[in-house]
Amino acid sequence: MEIRHATNPTDFKSYTSDRLRNDFLMENLFVPGELNMVYSHYDRVITGGVIPTTSEIRLDAGDKLRTEYFLERREIGIVNIGEKAVVTVEGETFELNKRDCLYVGKGNQNVTFASADPDKPTKLYLVSANAHKEYPTQLMPIKDATPTKLGSDAESNNRTIYKYIHGDGIQSCQLMMGMTLLEPNNMWNTMPAHVHDRRMEVYLYFDMDEESRVFHFMGEPKETRHMLIRNEQAVLSPPWSIHSGVGTNNYTFIWAMAGENYTFTDMDFVDMNDLR
Ligand SMILES: O=C(O)C(=O)C[C@H](O)C(=O)CO
Ligand SMILES: [Zn+2]
């Protein structure tokens, strides 16, 4: 498991494109037959991707957590971005179609990932945060996730936010997770931009073709930087940073948050006059 250290907004101003990418971008989460994870010191959130092929893959603590098993002191949200998946939790199986989410709480020792059909491997996106309490394992198909319409065609940001893990959805200790779908011909997300110093956030961009890119914006509102992101790459957003993007083509993204509060609506919107 790769470790990413946190930085502060003052040092961030001097970062080159390479430094930005090395510190915040997760380029290779999805590799066939592998489970890949990145441990961030922003709220100790772990971001991962798994593509089980011929054999199932076990959720493993490795040697970095120094716990007996991965979910000993953690919870995890799993969203399927590929073909049909089978996730087993303590012997109970859950089938996830594309865009379904499974929450697995603290205390579960045996979690495995498999593709329903090894010839059509699934892709599961994982985000995990520290947990102090056990919440029940829960599957939420996208049809049951709370939809919120936002934006407009005129602003090129007509989109729907689906919330899976949050105060009025699947219960968790601190992890919040959902997916935002842009309507066709809409390319902007999260503009006007916001920050929430109480929580870090991770974005995974997907449903993009090989040539498409998202210009992702981050940094303090008055010192923004950008990086180009490809399909199925994720980016860390520090609590002091905006997180917003515009695509060269249509795309979908998954957002996940952890930190001090559990209030999705706690966002400090940035006035356009303050964005630079
Ligand atoms: O489209 C959006 O806007 C989002 O999805 C915003 C995220 O949900 C977010 O940044 C929550 O803090
Ligand atoms: Zn946010």
From TrEMBL:
Q: Which residues belong to the signal peptide in this entry?
A: none
- What Gene3D superfamilies has UniProt attached to this entry? Jelly Rolls (2.60.120.10), pectin degrading enzyme 5-keto 4- deoxyuronate isomerase, domain 1 (2.60.120.520)
Q: In which pathway does it act?
A: Glycan metabolism; pectin degradation; 2-dehydro-3-deoxy-D-gluconate from pectin: step 4/5
Give the Enzyme Commission number: 5.3.1.17
Catalytic reaction(s) noted: 5-dehydro-4-deoxy-D-glucuronate = 3-deoxy-D-glycero-2,5-hexodiulosonate
- What does this protein need as cofactor? Zn(2+)
List keywords of the entry alphabetically: Isomerase, Metal-binding, Zinc
**Leading EC class:** isomerase
Spell out the InterPro entries in the cross-references.
KduI, KduI/IolB_isomerase, KduI_N, RmlC-like_jellyroll, RmlC_Cupin_sf
What does this protein's record comment on cofactor binding?
Answer: Binds 1 zinc ion per subunit.
Keyword Zinc present in the record's keywords: the answer is: yes
Q: Which GO terms describe its biological process?
A: D-galacturonate catabolic process; D-glucuronate catabolic process; pectin catabolic process
Looking up CDD domains in the UniProt record yields: cupin_KduI_C, cupin_KduI_N
The record's comment on protein family reads: Belongs to the KduI family.
**Function according to Swiss-Prot or TrEMBL:** Catalyzes the isomerization of 5-dehydro-4-deoxy-D-glucuronate to 3-deoxy-D-glycero-2,5-hexodiulosonate.
Q: What is this protein called?
A: 4-deoxy-L-threo-5-hexosulose-uronate ketol-isomerase
Q: Which gene encodes it?
A: kduI
